[in-house]
Write a structure and sequence with these properties.
By secondary structure, the chain is of the alpha+beta class. Helices cover about 40% and strands about 20% of the residues. β1 (about 5-15) and β2 form a beta hairpin.
């Protein structure tokens, strides 16, 4: 899991003007402009889970392990930020995951028991542009070698 980093900005505000230091999250991911057709299919809770996974994925290759602990951490996080108004069950979070895998936002790495996934680098990436290219290439080639579907990683007309 990657820890959030912050920046501080000094601003002059108020009456009389006073200098205040304000903190803002500087950690983030690059979201590419080819994802709207998938995001529109998600409900707000599925999108919240997707964003949560993006925060926690590996910076080098978008990998992460989605085990019971991560699901419980997500449930606690959502419960906290919604004032306990939303607190999904583990079973519900698992259904959210399925709805992220089906359109290709998440890619299962191995079998379901491995709990190993990649956030699809075609749509979102946390590392550098060079790391993204290497990750996409490695995923496509290794999945092809294993006979796995690659349609979530490429534009299907390019496979013909």
């Amino acid at each position: 899991m990657t820890a959030l980093t912050y920046i501080q900005i000094s601003v002059n505000i108020g009456s009389p003007k006073r200098t205040k230091k304000l903190s803002f999250v500087s950690s983030g991911v690059t979201l590419f402009f080819n994802t709207q057709h998938l995001f529109i299919q998600l409900n707000p809770k599925e999108r919240a889970l997707f964003d949560y996974l993006c925060e926690r994925m590996n910076k080098v290759d978008n990998s992460l392990r989605i085990d019971t602990k991560l699901k419980e951490d997500f449930i606690r996080h959502i419960s906290k930020i919604t004032g306990k108004q939303i607190s999904p069950s583990i079973k519900r979070v698992t259904s959210y995951l399925k709805n992220l895998v089906t359109p290709g936002l998440l890619i299962l790495n191995g079998d379901k028991l491995s709990e190993s996934y990649f956030v699809n680098p075609k749509y979102v990436f946390k590392g550098t542009a060079k790391q993204r290219i290497a990750t996409i290439k490695l995923l496509i080639e290794s999945r092809d070698k294993l006979g796995y579907d690659n349609t979530m990683l490429v534009n299907t007309h390019e496979l013909k």
